[in-house]
Amino acid sequence: MPTAFIRKLEGSGPLPLSDTAFLREACSIAREVPARYDLIRDGDPPGPLFIMIEGWSCRYKLLPEGSRQITAFLMPGDCCDLYASLLVEMDHSIMTLTPARVAAVPRHAFEAEILRRPALLRALWHMQLVDEGTLRAWIVSMGRRDSVRRVAHLMCELYVRARSIGLVTDQHFELPLTQTVLGDALGLTPVHVNRVLRRLRLENVMELRAGALMISDITKLAATAGFRCELSPPPRAPCGLKRRTWSRSEHRSHHNQSRAHDDDCGGASIPSIRALVPIRRSCAGQIPSPGISRRVVRASRHSGIATGSPQ
Description:
The protein is an alpha+beta fold. The chain folds into two domains: 1-144, Jelly Rolls; 146-235 and 262-270, Winged helix-like DNA-binding domain superfamily/Winged helix DNA-binding domain (Arc Repressor Mutant, subunit A, Orthogonal Bundle), CATH 1.10.10. It has helices at residues 3-9, 17-26, 107-114, 118-144, 147-164, 179-186, 190-202, 218-225, 248-264; strands spanning 30-33, 38-40, 49-54, 57-62, 68-74, 79-80, 93-96, 100-105, 172-174, 206-209, 212-215, 298-299, 306-307. A four-stranded antiparallel β-sheet has the order 1-8-3-6. Strands 2-7-4-5 form a four-stranded antiparallel β-sheet. Strands 9-11-10 form a three-stranded antiparallel β-sheet. The radius of gyration is 23 Å and the shape is globular. The chain starts with a helix and ends with a strand. Mean pLDDT is 80; it is low at 230-234, 237-246 and 257-311.
């Protein structure tokens, strides 16, 4: 039964019983698929809507020289390319990573039915936004995070996703991903992935062993990754309700608490709000002050040594 799929959709709000009954019926026929099997390939015309009932799969692209880049992991409850019918042909492939049970739902019939079910349509939109947020986080990891933060951020993401569908028990869940697969997703070699996993294990943060992820300190893992759980944006408040906004004093209070937390964690905690606000700086890295002809002298917070020099 598509319990994980329904549970994921209800993350943005409960669905009417008629909608859940429709989803159960649509996913009632699922087939067994072996591991390393392409559900659809790059260049194929869009086929049925694939819904993962059990097992793991991934989206990937093959480069001309034969190397592979994984662009997403799909776990139970994930829907593969909801709006792919708008494409002439697929621009990526989808392959199972483990033995899986996959429901192949006729795409056009499903799309016509959800137009008559506004609650279900809204839930599918929200699910798509979460997937896009996940993809943006992957882009940031590939472009700006170092290897340790890449691995830690991916583990946090998979943990949050697995927890949302009830797969986590005592900070432990099945993670059937090899170091080669992780390397193809993170842009790292398997040897480099092994070194990072070993470092996180020695620091008593997490351990990946025998196809399972055991997290010893989720707070430290999130701090290492800079993970803010931005992968699941809250749905917009219904009409007639206003979402609470923060005042300037509340922002300042939150920033002070974040800086205090940074000091407690040795500066390796999740970035504060101020760190996300772009500030125009001079070429020397100082904040320019109008009317002052000399460079601002900054004192190191830890050492007390002044930096910078007069112009």
